[in-house]
Amino acid sequence: TDVHTDLDQHAKQLDKAHVFHSWSAQKAFDPLVIAGGLGTKVWDHAGNEYLDFSCQLVNVNIGHQHPKVVAAIQEQAATLATIGPATGSLVRAQAAQRITAKAPAGLDKVFFTNGGADAIENAVRMARLHTGRRKVLSTYRSYHGNTGAAINATGDWRRLPNEYATGHVHFFGPFLYRSEFWATTPEEECERALHHLRRVVESEGAATVAAILLETIPGTAGIMVPPPGYLAGVRALADEHGIVLILDEVMAGFGRAGEWFALDAHDVVPDLITFAKGVNSGYVPVGGVVINEAIAADFDETVFPGGLTYSGHPLAAASIVGSIDAMESEGIVENARRIGADVLAPALADLAARHPVVGEVRGTGVFWALELVADPATRAPLPPPLVAKAKGECVRRGLIPFTVDNRIHVVPPCVVTDDEVAQALPIYDEVLTMLDKEIA
Ligand code: PLP
Hints:
Layout: H1 2-18, E1 36-38, E2 41-43, E3 49-52, H2 55-58, H3 67-79, H4 90-102, E4 107-113, H5 116-131, E5 135-139, H6 148-153, E6 168-171, H7 186-204, E7 209-215, H8 230-240, E8 244-248, E9 272-275, E10 287-292, H9 293-298, H10 314-329, H11 332-354, E11 358-364, E12 367-375, E13 380-381, H12 384-396, E14 399-400, E15 402-404, E16 407-410, H13 418-439
Parallel strand pairs: 3-14, 5-6, 5-7, 7-8, 8-9
Antiparallel strand pairs: 1-2, 2-3, 4-10, 9-10, 11-12, 12-13, 12-16, 15-16
Helix pairs in contact: 3-10, 4-10, 7-8, 11-13, 12-13
The structure holds pyridoxal-5'-phosphate (PLP).
């Protein structure tokens, strides 16, 4: 064990010396070293086990080290590890076919990228070329990635030091718990949020708006499932003005929301879908855009001005085919839906009822947020030091949580079992009890 503990220390020291981390002040950064994993569990070199209820960055939908996905990558690596994008490739075509089979009718082509942000870049590029317009409307409560157009489309604070691209306009989406519209029911929130968006489109000049870009269910911003009718209302508004509707399914897609695409539970067909994360659970970096006929047809005779060395990389393609086929044959999306409806929904509602620090619970599938408040009456957000403390206390008890702003997102893999949820719940319960005392 000593040798293995040493390996964890060695990894930390090397990391500290040479790795520059995302979104972090480097000096205080203290990574949890992870050496292996299987399903919902990960462990360090010393063998300390953790339940991964973060799915890392909410992307390991199929769980860690799924044998069929690992085998698909190994077999492809042994056959042909890399090939340029301007080639035909059976495995790439199969990956595109698997993805479009899950998309609504009429969205039949896939442009592959290296991840989610560049999927957004290319969807925005397509929308601008298709409409001949520049502006892209997206919500303040959103995250779309960290490249030029993607970070500008992002609504949260991370765009502020990174505003390089132009033509991005933000608006408020529906979020009843913290309504911007003085709404008290989902119906009011829906109607007023749609009115607000209509006024933004009109005030910006509808003829200047290329795209409305929405996360089907905003993820990092708080897992706000849109009220019934909202997305259909946005679709109608976009149609009225010839605006392209892009639904960002990077986080919500491929089982996370208990559906293949989160949009399947809503009455809406977008023009473009962006995906990444859950499509192959991040075993190899990949993302892409699913494109409808009208936009794809623009580039039948005209050259599409975009490309990437690794577009449709064979290892990524093999991992997509392996992952979608395993999710299909093992009923993994159905498991996510059942766990959400029958296990997480009642259990998290029970936690909320017993803990004053929980202001609201919301979500679907394996995509849930606990909104933490310093004062249930005013709904004042729990301050960051207490959220950080909660995170540390979860890890100490053997659970990796996903925390962001004043929230804990309960986002286990789609393969999570009833038993694993039963192991996690007392940990959340104890940590929430600690937080209750802090705010009492
Ligand atoms: N879009 C959404 C909805 C996301 O959640 C993310 C990442 O969290 C992105 C886009 C960006 O994806 P990536 O980090 O792969 O560039």
